[in-house]
Amino acid sequence: MALLNVSGLGVTIGAEALLRDVSFEIAAGEVLGLAGESGSGKSLTALAVSRLLPATATATGAVRFEGQELLAMPESALCAIRGRGIGLVFQEPATALNPLLTIGAQVAETVRIHLPVSRAEAQERAARALGRVGLDPARIPLDRYPHQLSGGQRQRVALALAVALTPKLLIADEPTTALDVTTQAQILALLRELAAADGMAILLVSHDLAVVAEMADRLAILHRGAIVEAGRTGSVLRSPRHPYTAALVRDYTPVALGVRARGPAASPLLEALGIVREYPGSRTGFLSRAPAQRAVDGVSLTIGPGERVGLVGESGSGKSTLVRTLLALEAPDRGSVRVAGETLAARPTLPQRRLRRLLQVVFQDPYGSLNPRHRIERIVAEPLHLLDGPLSRPERAARVAAALVAVGLEPGTARRFPHEFSGGQRQRIAIARALVVEPRLVILDEAVSALDASLRTQILELLGRLSEARGLAYLFVSHDLGVVRAVTDRTLVMQAGRIVEEGTTEQVLLAPRHPYTQALVAATPNLERALAGRASGA
Amino acid sequence: MIATARRWRLDAGLAAAATAGLVVVLAALVSLTGAFDAGLALNIDARLAAPSAAHWFGTDPLGRDVLAMIAAGARVSLGVSLGAVAIGLGIGVPLGLVAAVVGGVGDEAVARLNDLVFAMPSLLLAVLLAATMGPGPANAVIALGVFNVPVFARLSRAGARTLLARDFVLAARVAGKGRLRIALEHLLPNLTGLLIVQATIQLALGIAAEAGLSYVGLGAQPPAPSWGRMLNDAQTLTAIAPWLAWCPGIALSVTVLALSVLGERLREVFDPRARR
Predict the structure, then answer these.
(1) Cβ distance of B167 and A363 shorter than 8 Å
(2) ipTM of the predicted structure?
(3) Cα angle at A263 between A341 and A296, to 5 degrees?
(4) How many A-B residue pairs are in contact by the CB < 8 A criterion?
(5) pTM for the structure as a whole
(6) What is the pLDDT of residues A410-419, one digit of tens each?
(7) CB count, 10 Å around CB of A518?
(8) Which among A262, A381, A461, B100 could bridge B160 via Cys, Cβ 3.0 to 4.6 Å?
(9) Does A58 touch chain B (CB under 8 A)?
(10) Per-residue confidence at B276, pLDDT binned at 50, 70, 90?
C-alpha cells in the first residue's frame, strides 16, 4: 500500500479551477518530484495534500495518508498528523521561523506538542534534531535566534523542525530556491541523507529540473493545474512523451549565442578603476558601531564596445552594489567609473547626460521596475529625458513604438498600464526602456532570473538578436552559471567584494582555476550531469 | 458565515460613504442655495418647540430651527476641518517628500521637527493658539492645521523612502531624472492612495477638534451656528429641551464615525495587503 495516495485532487478558488484531477502515489521511502513552471499548481498541490490551503479554496477528490482520508479529517486530528506523520519545509527560511523564539525552543516546542515528554527531554531531542541537520549544538548553541543565522542555516532549522519526529513523509516546497547554489547543494545532500537514514518519503516540489533529476525517483510534470506526464525520473527527462515536458527540458539549458571573437578594443566603453564601496557597520550598542563592511573591495573591470561580459557570484558577493556604483546611482568611496573615457558622476548635468545615454540597465524584478501608475508609453520614453533637447510628440511616439517593436511587442500596447502584462512581457517593456536612447552598453542585473525557463529562452534570444543587430555590449550579472555560459564571451567571478577570477567564459566555467569558482561550478545543478549519473532506465 | 460578514462590512462602508456624502450635501445646500436661511431667523414665538412636522429637530431658545442650525454647523465643521487638512497636505507632503529625496541632515531635521510637534498635546495647544490669535473659524483652521503638518510629513516621508528603493525609481535615476522630478513623477502618484486615506481620517479628527474649540467658544462666533457651541448652549436646557443636546451630539458622532469607517475602508481598497 502506498504511503500517500492522491486521487482526483481538484482545487478551486471562486469559479476558477486551479488544479484538475491530480493523482499520484508515493511509496514509503520514495522521492517524488513535482515539477512545472510558475502558476502550474505545484505549491497548491503541496498545500492541498497538507490541508493548508487558504480559506477561500475548496479541495475535492481524495488524499489518503497511511489509509486515512485527510480531506475529510477534522482539524484536531490533522494536527496530530502534521509534524508527526508529515513534515513540511517551505521556500522561504526567513519567514518559516518565529523570530522571537530561539531555535532550540522552536524545535523543542514541536516535540512537546506531539509527544508526552518533559521539558528537558524535549530540549535533548531538539539538540539531537539540530545536530542531525548539521547545526552542532557545540558550535551553534540552542539559544541562538533565527536572525543570528544565515539563510542556509535557517533552512536547516526549518528542516530540523520538519524531521524532529522522524515523519514518514516530508513535503518540501522549493526548499532550496531561495538559497545560493553552494548552500543548495549542501541542503539537497542533507535531505538525501536524512531520507535514507529514516526511510522517509519526500514530495519534492521544484521548478528546477536539475534539482529533481538529482533527487527524485519518480517525477510528475504539472502544467496548468493538471499532471501531463509522470514516470521514472530518468525516462521522463531523457525521452519525454508529452510535448510540454519536451519543451521544459529543451528550455532548461539556455541556447548558446555563439562565441564572438573580438580583438582588444581600441578604447574601452566602460572602465571601473579600483572601486571600493563601504557601508557603515550595524549598531552594536547605543553609541558603538561594528566596523564598516566592504561590499566592494577594489574592483577594476573594462568592457569594450560590443562585448558581452558575465559577472557571477552568490548573494552578498557585492554584485548589486557594484552595479549601482557602475550606474553612478551610488558614489564609490574610492576609485572611479569612466564611460567612454570620461568620469561618470551622480549629478545629471548636460555633459553627464551624454555619457548616461551610453549606459542603460534592466533590473531583475519585472514587477518592481515599472511604475504601476504610468502608462507604457511614459515608462519606455523616460530615458529620452537624456537627449539634448526635448522631442516633439510624434517623434517621441515613434521612438517608443520602434523600441516596443524591437522587443517584440505591439506598438499599440503603449497606451496600457503595467499590470495588464505578464512577467515576461513586462521584462520586454523594461528592455524597450533601456533601448529607447540607443545605448552602447546595457547592464542586465539578474534580468532573466525571475522568469520561467520558456520565457527566459525567449528573452535571451531577443538579447542575442539585439546585440548582433546593434553591436550592443552587455554586462550580464547573474547567479545562474548556465545562462552566463550561454550568452557571454568573457566572465568575471566575484566573491566577498573582489573579482577572484576573470577570463573567457569557456575557460572560467569549464576549467576554473580559483577554488571558489570550482566550488560554484561543482555546486550548480546540471541536468545532463544529473541524468548521466543515473543508471539508464532509472 | 464569511459571506455574511463580508456583506455587512460592505454595507458599513457604503453607509459611511452615504452619511459623509449627506453631511457634504447639507453643507453645500447652506452655502450655495441658502435653503436653511429662513430656519435660522429668530422667531421668539416658536422658541423651544419640541420636534414636530414643522421643525423636525425642534427649535432653540431663540426659536431657530435646530435642523437648519445643524446644516449650517455642518458647513462650519467641514470647512474648518477641510482647511486644516489642506494645510497639512500642502505643507506636510512637500516637506516629507523633500526630506526623503534629499536625505542627510535635512531629512533628519524634518524627522526631529515632526517628533517635536507630535510630542505636544495638540488639542490643548490648538486652544492656546486660537485663544492668542483670537477666536474665529480662520484661526481655528490654522490652529488645527499646524498639527496636521507632521502627520502628512511623516506619512509621505516614510512612504517615499520605501518607494525610493524600488527598481522603477532606480531606472528613473539611470534615465537622468533629478531628485525633485522623481519625487513628483514617481513618488507622489504612488502615495496618493495612502494620502487620501489619511486625509479622510484627519478630516474626522478635525471635525471633532473643531467641535471642541467651538465648545469652549474659540471656533465660529455667534450668530454663526456650530455643533460645538450648540452643545455648550444646550447644557443648561437638557432637562426641558433634550433635543438641543441630542441633535448636534448625534450629528457630530455620526459624522466622525462615518468618516473614520470611510477612511478604514479606503485603506483596505488602496492597501492590497489589507484586502481579503
Answers:
(1) yes
(2) 0.75
(3) 50
(4) 61
(5) 0.80
(6) 888 889 998 8
(7) 13
(8) B100
(9) no
(10) very low
